[in-house]
Amino acid sequence: MDIKLSIYEARVIGCLLEKEITTPEQYPLSLNALTNACNQKSNRDPVMELSESTVQETLDALVKKRLVSDKSGFGSRVTKYQHRFCNTGFGDLKLSEQELAIICVLMLRGPQTPGELRTRTERLCKFGDVREVETVLHHLAGREDGPFVTRLQREAGKRESRYAHLLSGDVSEMDASEPVTVSAGSVPPTHDRVAQLEHQIMELNEEVARLKDRLADLEAAVAAGNP
Predict the structure, then answer these.
(1) Beta carbons of 178 and 187 less than 8 angstroms apart
(2) Helix and strand counts by DSSP (H, E) for the chain
(3) Domain housing 219
(4) Contact 9/46 with Cβ under 8 angstroms?
(5) Are residues 157 and 145 in contact, defined by beta-carbon separation less than 8 angstroms?
């Protein structure tokens, strides 16, 4: 499996997969609609507070990876985005309806038990029972082009083990233990630390540029005798 996504990229892909199924009349998504989807307070773990600029940067990275494409409708000035992650003519990855639903929900809500996955995928597909969910999970874990999911060690006092997706690299128990809130200015629990540090540096550079502009305006006002 060649796919390795940052936490932001996984959120964007997950949202595009979800909205393609649940609100097909609004798909592909504009930048604004996609940002709102990424920052939903419900059906998301961790909860994020991403700016449009952060989502745009993430989209640009995904376009370079050929996992997202942008398009504009005839006569429309608004660019919209659609995934090329799976089940398209642009890539080799093919997922069944149930596999796609599980991957989507794991990307949007983090590690979950088979019972939780059965409940939380209802808007995306149907499972007859928990055993059917477990069968699909085992298949995703054993696919030749994968693995796509892994079973985590069962937590003390819990009856079921949780499963996590592997699209962002190997999952440690520490990464999967507690829910957190991720904002655009924080460093999320991702394996792509270099990308996140680069993002922070870029935000700092933007802040410095804004302060320089403000200082230039103040100097101009003083020079004109209007402090």
Answers:
(1) no
(2) 7, 7
(3) 192-227
(4) no
(5) no
Q: Say if residues 95 and 85 touch (Cβ distance below 8 Å).
A: no
Retrieve residue 104's tokens: 């989507």
3-class DSSP assignment, residue 80: strand
Task: Let me know if 40 is exposed, middle or buried by CB neighbors in 10 A (0-12, 13-18, 19+).
Answer: middle
- pTM, two decimals, is 0.76
Q: How many domains does the chain have?
A: 2
Q: How many C-alpha atoms does 28 have within 13 Å on its Cβ side?
A: 16
195 has pLDDT over 80? no
pLDDT in tens, 57-113: 999 999 999 999 998 766 668 899 999 999 998 788 999 999 999 999 999 999 999
Q: Is residue 162 part of a domain?
A: yes
Q: What is the pLDDT of residues 12-25, one digit of tens each?
A: 999 999 999 999 99
